[in-house]
Amino acid sequence: MSAPATRRAYVGGMASENLDLIPGAEPQSWAGGPDGVLVLHGFTGSPHSVRPWAAAIAAAGFTVELPLLPGHGTSLEDMQTTSWADWSKAAEDAYQELDGRCRRVAVAGLSMGGTLTVWLAEEHPEIAAIALVNPAVMPQPEIAELLLPLLEAGETVFEAIGSDIAKEGVEEIAYAGTPLAPLASLGEAIDDLQPRLGDISCPVLLMTSPQDHVVPPASSDHLAAALAEGTGGATVERVTLERSYHVATLDHDAELIGERTVDFLRRHLGA
Question: Residue 34 and residue 110: Cα distance in Å, rounded?
Answer without folding.
Answer: 24
